[in-house]
Design a protein that fits this description.
168 residues, mainly alpha, 72% helix, elongated, transmembrane, transmembrane helix, membrane
């Protein structure tokens, strides 16, 4: 944890991009609520179910998937409150979580966009969110931000722990 050193100004960019990402996720979740039936119709039309398939069962499963996306955004919003606080405190674990969130979210977006299960407007939103996540990944890996969360810092001194390169 880095509590005594001043956070680099680049850290504000990371926080802003996290909030933009959350905002985009929230907008998409709200659109999923508003256009729930239209999204289900789109998904059903693109499945190519065989004759005799349990259409209502498939539709119920797809509906549950849409609701889980909405619930996921609510959970992520709660997690972000704690994550942002820990990022501001300079906690290394929060920094690592931001890296993981960026990479996993990008992989999820890539899957969703290539799966073809959503209409084009969802893909457009996901592409915008991917750009934000790439910017977040870039921002969080800047040297000043990485140094701020360096594992070589001690909580009390805020400076590097003497290692082989500093002990002479």
């Amino acid at each position: 944890m880095n509590t005594t050193a001043h956070p680099p100004r680049e850290l504000q960019r990371v926080i802003t991009l996290l909030l933009v990402n959350l905002g985009l996720s929230t907008i998409l979740a709200l659109l999923f609520l508003v256009f729930h039936n239209a999204l289900l119709d789109h998904q059903m039309a693109h499945l190519g179910l065989p004759a005799g398939a349990d259409v209502e069962g498939v539709r119920a499963g797809l509906s549950a998937g849409l609701w889980s996306r909405v619930a996921g955004v609510v959970i992520i919003g709660i997690v972000y409150v704690f994550l942002l606080r820990r990022i501001r405190e300079g906690r290394r674990r929060a920094y690592i979580r931001v890296l993981i969130i960026s990479v996993v979210s990008l992989a999820g977006i890539a899957y969703l966009m290539t799966s073809g299960q959503y209409p084009v407007w969802v893909d457009v939103e996901q592409a915008i969110q991917a750009v934000v996540l790439i910017a977040l990944l870039w921002a969080v890996t800047r040297p000043a931000v990485r140094a701020h969360f360096s594992s070589g810092r001690t909580p009390s001194a805020g400076g590097p722990v003497p290692g082989p390169a500093t002990r002479r």
